[in-house]
Amino acid sequence: MGGEVKTSMLAAQIRVARRNPQASSFLLDVSIEVPAGITILFGPSGAGKSTLLDCVAGLVRPDAGRIVAGDDVLFDSPNGINVPAQKRRTAYVFQTLALFPHLSVEENVAYGLSGLHEEERQRRVGDILAAFRVEKLRWEKPGAISGGERQRAALARSLVTEPRLLLLDEPLTGLDAELKAAIVDDLRAWNAANRIPILYVTHSREEVDALGERVIALENGRVVSRGAPMDVLDAPRRKRLAQAAGFENLLRGTVRDLREADGVMRVRLGESECEIEVPLGYAAAGDRVQVAIRAGYILLATERPRGLSARNVIAGRIVSLEQRGTLVTARVDCGVTFVVHVTPGAARTLELTTGKEVWLVLKTHSCHLVE
Amino acid sequence: MEALWLSFRLAGCVAAILLVIGTPVAYWLAYSRWRGKFLLESVVALPLVLPPTVLGFYALVAMGPRGPLGKLWFALFGHGLAFTFGGLIIASVLYSFPFAVQPLVSSFEAVDRKLLDASAVLGAGGLRTFWRVILPLSLPGVVTAVVLTFAHTIGEFGVVLMVGGNLAGVTRTVSIDIYDHVQSLEYADANRMAVVLLAISFGVLSVVYAVNRRVWTPWAAK
């Protein structure tokens, strides 16, 4: 642990078998590298995201593997090294936040600074409370403040210790969008000033877009995909990942033919007459495939559109319309049922009603093959 | 009144000793992952099901001049242990053990494990976590343990009779005193003591239930 500030990399190879009987054969078996900056851990619940964080923090002991932060080995099963959680200098914001209910916000934040002089401790606590805008609440108990304030307090408590790793387990769930955006801004500012590896678990697509520099997608305890958010989440090759990433349309189909020169193939959806063109994938004519399409990427027209670059124009009929907040969800029967999102304004202008005849427009590259 | 004062001294000593001994035992019972834990749990609960005379009998044998405890005591202090205040304390500690340990175990177990994880991640070792997180959050359990052992010791009869006998000012506790009065047909005296004991027991139980219902919660509920 040199005095100079250097960007440290977290590298972890972890194997752990779940001992609880409900998930008897569950095994987390991953190898990840997390450079400084925010890396999102994404995947359906039960994929092993929290277990992975627990292993890195030292709260769960892997059966085998090696965890290295910068130059320090935190865990190494062949050599019997297992640094206890309290010595790992890891900050961990739990999903439940786990603020101490009997201590004030200030006492919570100062909890991890026991080794410091009183003056230094006061200064650091004051600075971080200001940075996360909870100074006014310093004397309050966690039970007496709002959800967003608790989340800020929990972030402040973890970050004040100047950790070398930061683990965040869905720290912003249950907050409204505006509050979330404000906290995300504070977190990004902190990240810009303190370049350490940050592992951020979330289900939320918005948080990925707002925060993520890299995404690691987990499924059933394995890494199934990694890379930039766009590459991982907009082109999911896995069905459960597609569902988790919010692809509302997951359609089964049969490959009709491949047009390799054009880089596309035609897929007949379900048992219907409906055919669409999708990007060429590893498939042969006659193969069964699944196609994932985001509901917000489908255009809806009330007359047959002409002169478009989009290759897929499908006729259908609206079977249901449902408005939730500022989003209208239309189900359109084209032989198979598509879910389409439009704005309330569009629904009004187009006079959308149940039973109305419409045309759906899908760009070839909005259609993704799923394994 | 001498008997009442003796009972209070005995109960105070026993409650204090049990808090000190019971806390680590309860901590171990609450957090150990050892599979044979149930064995110790059974031993701790034994005084709940054994007749006080059985417990008192074994305590007396152990403390007697030929018993291991009695021999050790004699070697250390030059006098026997049976029929002394010290012997009474030891027997009472055994007898009230579950009343101290069980409330502590259940309140330790009720502390959210995530708080312990949070404490560890923030750099606190086991002892610091215990003092700063587990103990403050288990205060109702601690109060219950102290009050119950105190009350239980005041009310005990069989064990005291077996181990302590009936020596005024040394081992004649209030429950024995009442028994004495009744044997001598002094019902008025017996009644006076009995009423005091009844009032104390009621007061003590009220405190226990009030604390557990969080009538005076020292911090806002979650």
What is the CATH fold-level name of chain B?
MetI-like fold
Give the helix proportion of chain B (percent range): over 70%
What are the low-pLDDT stretches of chain B, counting only 5+ consecutive residues below 50?
215-222
Count of distinct strands of chain B:
0
Average pLDDT confidence of chain A is 85
Specify which chain pair forms the largest interface.
A-B, 31 and 22 residues
Domain count of chain A, please report it: 2
Count of helical regions of chain A: 9
Total number of beta strands of chain A: 21
Radius of gyration of chain A: 25 Å
Task: Determine the strand fraction of chain A and express it as a percent band.
Answer: 25-35%
Query: Any idea what the CATH superfamily of chain B is called?
Result: MetI-like
Share of residues in helices of chain A? 10-25%
Give the topology string of chain A: H per helix, E per strand.
EEEHEEEEHHHEHEHEEHHEEEEEEEEHEE
Order of helices and strands of chain B: HHHHHHHHHHH
General shape of chain B: globular
By CATH, the topology of the largest domain in chain A is Rossmann fold
| Annotated CATH homologous superfamily of the largest domain in chain A | P-loop containing nucleotide triphosphate hydrolases
Structural class, from helix and strand content of chain B?
mainly alpha
Oligomer: heterodimer
Radius of gyration of chain B: 20 Å
